[in-house]
Amino acid sequence: MVDDDIEIKPPIDLIPDEYTRNGNFNFYVEAFFSDNDESAIELLHSLEELNFPVKRTALDNPVFDPEWITRVQKTVNDKEYDGILLLFVKMHLELQEMKNIWSQFTAKYCPKLKNKPKIFIFQVESQKGRSVQSDSTARKLKWPAAYETPSEADILIIHDKYDDGKTDLLRQLSANVKEYGEQENIITLISLGFQCNYQPLLISTMTKSFFFQFHSYRGNHLNIRKSQKWIMKEIEKLKSQNLQ
């Protein structure tokens, strides 16, 4: 029996092109949420465990304040960050307000974020008198106005309509990051675990894959790597038994 370690390297053409960074400590993350929101706190804890420096802005009411964006803009323009993730949790936001948020972080206003991932998660509370229904793609949201795609690359916008505690994007995302964060990118993690009629709406101009966790193998190659380790352990067990 051969004792040398077996190494399976993924083909170069199948290695995903991902946004690179030296750790998570230089990625700007800020969440705007009620400080008693357990699902938001759970997700933020998960990100902090991965060494993301999370800034928490507690809300007295779920109403957007334009001064937040002015402050964040100044921060990301004063330092060289690897990217930005902003979470707006269970807030009352109109489509135009959301556009006013993500559009302020394009290269025109934040040149240091050019070619870097800019991720916006909008978890919008359902408002009385507002018609929200599923469309032919079984998305969770359908806005009364046409969807608008950013004209700049490297932006991911996630729209999630929150109705009650039964289906919470942040709770599911937190679980997915822990379970599949090494293997799957953010778009897959957002989609995992939801029934088709509860899928959040994703608008992406991302040119690469964004991962929360680091690993030299991704996707199926990570599965192969894990299987390889399990096989080698089993072989070692058999070898030990034969020596007894």
Shape: globular
Number of domains: 2
Radius of gyration: 21 Å
State the helix count.
6
Number of extended strands: 6
Helix content: 25-40%
CATH overall fold name of the largest domain: Rossmann fold
Can you identify the CATH class of the largest domain? Alpha Beta
Biggest β-sheet description: 6 strands, mixed
- CATH structural architecture of the largest domain: 3-Layer(aba) Sandwich
Low-confidence stretches: 1-14, 129-146
Mean pLDDT: 80
Helix and strand content put the structural class at: alpha/beta
Write a short abstract of this structure.
This protein has 244 residues and is of the alpha/beta class.
What's the arrangement of secondary structure elements?
Elements lengths: L27 E6 L4 H12 L4 E5 L7 H13 L5 E8 L3 H8 L15 E8 L29 E8 L6 H12 L5 H6 L9 E4 L14 H25 L1
Parallel strand pairs: 1-2, 1-3, 3-4, 4-5
Antiparallel strand pairs: 5-6
Helix pairs in contact: 1-4
What does this structure look like?
Helices cover about 30% and strands about 15% of the residues. With about 240 residues, the chain is α/β, with parallel strands linked by helices. The chain has 2 domains: about 25-125 and about 150-215, Rossmann fold (3-Layer(aba) Sandwich); about 215-244. The chain has a 6-stranded mixed sheet with strand order 2-1-3-4-5-6, covered by helices on one side. Helix 1 packs parallel to helix 4. The radius of gyration is 21 Å and the shape is globular. Residues about 1-15 and about 130-145 have low confidence and may be disordered.
